[in-house]
Amino acid sequence: MDPDSELEFDMPGMLRAYNTGHADRFDGTETVPPSSDGGPANGVASKDVVLDPAAGISARLYLPAGVEPSRRLPVVLFIHGGAFMVHTAASPLYYIYAGSLTAAVPALVVSADYRLALENRLPATYDDAFTALKAAGTAPRPRPSPGSLHTGWTEEGEGQPPNSSGSHIKYCI
């Protein structure tokens, strides 16, 4: 860290922000890898995809177990919470939630990631979420193939369960 940086903001246990734009995060840094063969709790498969390589925007897709190849699935766009500053689509809390939602509906859940504040000023978060929404609405729509996560996007629309900054982002886009 820059020796000339000064502490600008301290949220104990969560993060420290410095006047240089650097942030030290203490919460929301743990991640869970995707599971292409289905998670042990619910059989839901997950896969990470890049939506915009230039901006570094990605999403994690969740596919329920036992989907018939001819079945079209509704799409749920999920945007994680975390006060705009912590967590990712790969955080354990959201991995468990998105997997449970996928299995219960069943639906294709797109858990969008976004660039975090403080390093990225608003409206970057909203722009990233809008990129995920456009990707969900314009992606090719092939049918799911057995044993793969190459699944169809549908025209069914999106949903967003309430969740902190994620709900606010969804409302704004």
UniProtKB/TrEMBL annotation:
Q: Name one Pfam family in it.
A: Abhydrolase_3
What is the protein name for this chain? Answer: Putative carboxylesterase 13
Ranges for region Disordered: 137-173
Any GO molecular function: hydrolase activity
Could you tell me which species this protein originates from?
Dichanthelium oligosanthes
Ranges where the Alpha/beta hydrolase fold-3 domain occurs: 76-136
